[in-house]
Amino acid sequence: MILLTRKADFSAAHFYWNDQWSDEENFRVFGKCSNRQGHGHNYTLEVTVAGEVDPVTGFVVDLKLLKEILEREVVSVYDHRHLNYEVPEFAHTIPTTENIAVAIWRRLAGKIPHAKLQRVRVYEMPDLFADFYGEGA
Amino acid sequence: MILLTRKADFSAAHFYWNDQWSDEENFRVFGKCSNRQGHGHNYTLEVTVAGEVDPVTGFVVDLKLLKEILEREVVSVYDHRHLNYEVPEFAHTIPTTENIAVAIWRRLAGKIPHAKLQRVRVYEMPDLFADFYGEGA
Amino acid sequence: MILLTRKADFSAAHFYWNDQWSDEENFRVFGKCSNRQGHGHNYTLEVTVAGEVDPVTGFVVDLKLLKEILEREVVSVYDHRHLNYEVPEFAHTIPTTENIAVAIWRRLAGKIPHAKLQRVRVYEMPDLFADFYGEGA
Amino acid sequence: MILLTRKADFSAAHFYWNDQWSDEENFRVFGKCSNRQGHGHNYTLEVTVAGEVDPVTGFVVDLKLLKEILEREVVSVYDHRHLNYEVPEFAHTIPTTENIAVAIWRRLAGKIPHAKLQRVRVYEMPDLFADFYGEGA
Amino acid sequence: MILLTRKADFSAAHFYWNDQWSDEENFRVFGKCSNRQGHGHNYTLEVTVAGEVDPVTGFVVDLKLLKEILEREVVSVYDHRHLNYEVPEFAHTIPTTENIAVAIWRRLAGKIPHAKLQRVRVYEMPDLFADFYGEGA
Amino acid sequence: MILLTRKADFSAAHFYWNDQWSDEENFRVFGKCSNRQGHGHNYTLEVTVAGEVDPVTGFVVDLKLLKEILEREVVSVYDHRHLNYEVPEFAHTIPTTENIAVAIWRRLAGKIPHAKLQRVRVYEMPDLFADFYGEGA
Q: What is the DSSP string of D102-128?
C-alpha cells in the first residue's frame, strides 16, 4: 500500500460567530476573528489517498482524475467565496480550520475510484493546519 | 548605503468592483474576484528601507521600532478586516494588489526615522505580487 | 477526532559535546557541531493536539490559549538562548534535534486543556527534523 | 522511540510509457507525461528512520552516516540522470512518484544501522508526493 | 509607476553540451549536467511588468490576460518538453538558466499590452536563478 | 547583461553588544539579542553576479567555480561558528544582518573571475534580510 497526496489552493473569506452568544461573548472567545465583515485566507488543501500501485500504470490513482475531483467537489465551491454566506455546510457551522477539514472529507468521501481517502489536511495559514482521518478514526 | 527588508503578514477579505459598471461588466473584467460577498487572502508585506549603517548599533533602522511602525500603521488596520468595507482608502479605490501597495506606501512614508522608505512589496498569493517605489519613481 | 497543528519559531545557539570523551572523540563523532563556542539555528516547532471538535466553538483547542501555552512553556525559555548554557534540561543532555523534541514534549505534557498532546516536531533546519509521540509511543 | 527525517534533492528526467499500449493509449492515460523525449523535475526525498535515542550521543542515527547512505544509495544514482534510460529499476517499471518511492525504499532497506526505516516520501513537485512505509505496511 | 510580478511553473528536461568540444571537454566544463540522456527541473518563471495603475480597474495589467500570455507564449511550449530537442531556440544554444531567461524575454517582448516588460527571472532550482532586463539593459 | 544568483546557507551563533555601553543600555537597545551567551540562526546568503553570457558555455559565471568561491570565502569561515568570537571582522563590529552583508561583500569582492559582484543579500530569518550593493552604491 502506498499513499499519494495532492495539494490544491483556494482563497476564501470567513469569520467566527456563534448566534447563541452576545457580541461581547463572541469577541471574548473569537477575538478579531469575530469581525462580521469577514477576513480571508489563502487556504491550502492536501488530500491523501491510499491504495495499491496499479502495475499497468504505476498509479495509485489517476492524477488527472484526482485533480478534476478536487476541482469539482471542493475548489469550484470554496474558491473566491465567503464561506459563511455562500457555502451551505457553513450556514450553521462555524468555518474553523477543523470544521473545514471535516466538511471537505464529507465532500470527497466515496468520490475517488480505486483508492481510499486517507487524510484531509487544511492549512489556514502556513503556521496552522488541521488533519481529519474520517468519521470513525 | 544598505537596504533592510522586513516582512509582516495580514489576513483580509476583499473583492473587485467598479460602481460605474453593470454587474455583467464587473464580472467580465474581474471574473470570480467580483463576487461581492468577498473572498480573502493571507497577504505578505515586505517593507524595504535604505540608509547608512549606524556604526554604534550596526543598524540601518532600529528593528523593534520598525516592527512597531508596521504593526501600528498597517497590520493593526488591515489584519482581519474586510478591505472594501473597513479600510478607508478602499472606500472608493479597488483593493487590487497594486493599489494596496500604493496605500501602504502612503501609510508608511515619512514615518520611519533615520532611513528612507525604498520599496513596498505586497504578495496577494505566493505567485502574485506588486512593488511600489514611491510617487516620483 | 481531529488533529490541530500550530507552528512556533525560536532562534537559539547550541553545540554537541560529551564530557566523558576527549576533544578528539567529540570532533570525530560530532564534527563541526562540536565547536564549543556554539553555533545556532532558526528552529521551527510544530505541536499537534488531538481531540473532538467542540460543537459550540468549532475548535479542538482554543487557539489563543494554545499560542499562549507554547509561548510560556517553550518559546520564552528557548528563544534567543544558548541551549547548553541557559536551558536547564540541556545541562547534562546534548541538545540534539531528537532531545529537543523530547524536552519540549515534557514541557507541554498535561498543559493543554481539553485536548491530547499528539506529536511534537522540531525542525533544526528545513532539511532535518525529529518527531516525538510521547514516552509510551 | 523517536523519528528522525532528513531531506535530500535530486534532479532527473523521466516520462510515462507502457510498451504494451499504442501511442494513442499512452497519450490518453498519461497526457503530456507520455512525451518520450522526457521532461524532468527537482525531486525532494524525505527519509524517516525510527529508533531509541542513544543516551551517549543524543542521536537516533549518526547524521553524517545517514547523509552518506542517502548520497551513495540514492542521490549518486538518480541525480542528473534520465530515470527511464539510466536507472535499472525503471527499465521495465514506469517511474511514477509512487514507484520511485517504492524503489528508494528497496535501495535503503537494511542499509541504516541501529535504526528502522520508517517512511520514504518523494515529492515530484511541491504539490504532489507519495509515501511508502514498506512492503508489509 | 508600479511593478507587477506573476509566477508560472514548467517542468522540463535539458542537458549542457557544446558540439565543438570533445566528450572529455564537455564533462570537464559541465560535469554531470553534460549527461546527454538529459536530466530535468521544476522551473519557476517570474515575469515582472511595469506601468501606471489604471484608475478604472486598479490594474497595471489585466491578470487573466497576463496569465494567458504566459501560458500561450512560454508554458505551453516549454512544459513537459525536452528543451534541447523540442524547443527551437535551444537547437543551437545551450539551455542554461541564463539562456532560458533571455529566450523567455524574447518570447514575451511586445506581447503584453499597456505595460512594459521589466524583468524575466528563471529559477532552475530554489537556490539558483537568472534575471534578464532586456537587450539594452 | 544578465544577473545570476546563487544561494548558500550557514548556521552560526551571534549576539549584539556595544562595549562602550552599560549592560542596561545594551539591553535597552538590543533587547533579547544582547544575551551574551549568544543565540543563533540559519542564515541564507544570496550572491548575485552580473555579466555577459559567454556564447560558448551559456554561462555568466562557471557555477562550480562560484560554488567553490562561496564555500571557501564565506561558508567555511562562518558555518557552525560563533560570529562574535570566531570570525575576525566581528571582533569589534556588531554582527547585525547589515554588517554581515557588508562583510561578505568584502570577502567576495574581486574574487569572482569574468563577472561583476552585483549584490549580497543575507537573510537572518525568513522575514528579515539585508542587501548590499557595494561601497560606492
A: HHHHHHHTT-STTSEEEEEEEEEETTE
Any chain F CB within 8 A of the CB of C86? yes
| CA angle, E97 then E99 then E101, to 5° | 70
Nearest Cα residue to C20 out of C89, C92, C105, C125: C92
Which domains does chain F carry? 2-125 (3.30.479.10)
- Distance CA(C60)–CA(C69), nearest Å, equals 15
Estimate to the nearest angstrom the gap between the alpha carbon of C134 and the chain centroid: 12
Distance, CA of D125 to CA of D42 (rounded, Å): 7
Task: Give the contacts of C111 (CB within 8 A, at least 6 positions apart).
Answer: C69, C73
Nearest-by-Cβ selection for D128 from A6, A53, A57 = A6
Look-up: residue for cell 516520462?
D15
Interchain CB distance below 8 Å, B101 and E6: no
**pLDDT score for D59:** 97
Helix or strand run (H / E) with residue A124: strand A116-125
Q: Distance of CA C44 to CAs C75, D53, F44, F70, Å?
A: 10, 20, 16, 26
Closest by Cα among C9, C15, C10 to C39 = C15
Q: Is B58 in Cβ contact with F93 (below 8 Å)?
A: yes
For residues E45 and E37, give the distance between their C-alpha atoms in angstroms, rounded to a whole number: 24
| Residues 41-60 of chain D whose Cβ lies under 8 A from any Cβ of chain C | 48, 53, 56-60
Chain A contact for B75 (CB, 8 A cutoff): no
Give D17's pLDDT tier (boundaries 50, 70, 90): very high
The pLDDT, as a whole number, for residue D137 is 67
Task: Say what the alpha-carbon torsion angle E104, E105, E109, E115 is, to the nearest 10 degrees.
Answer: 110
pLDDT tens, residue by residue, F17-36: 999 999 999 999 999 999 99
Interface test with B, best of A10, A17, A32, A80 (most B CBs within 10 A): A80
**Summary mean pLDDT of chain B:** 96
CA C43 to chain centre: 8
Chains A and B touch (3+ CB pairs under 8 A): yes
* F107 CA: distance to closest CA in chain E (Å): 20
Interchain pair C126, D7: CB under 8 A: yes
| Closest to C77 (Cα-Cα) out of C50, C51, C49, C111 | C111
Reply yes or no on whether the pLDDT at C137 is more than 70: no
- pLDDT-above-90 percentage for chain F: 97
Measured between alpha carbons, how far apart are the two ends of chain E, in Å?
19
Tens of pLDDT, residues F68-81: 999 999 999 999 99
The two most distant CA atoms of chain D are separated, in Å, by: 60
Per-residue pLDDT, A80: 98
pLDDT digits (tens, 9 = 90+) for C93-130: 999 999 999 999 999 999 999 999 999 999 999 999 99
CA distance E39 to E82: 9
Query: Which of D89, D90, D92, D96 best probes binding to A when mutated, by most A CB atoms within 10 angstroms?
Result: D96
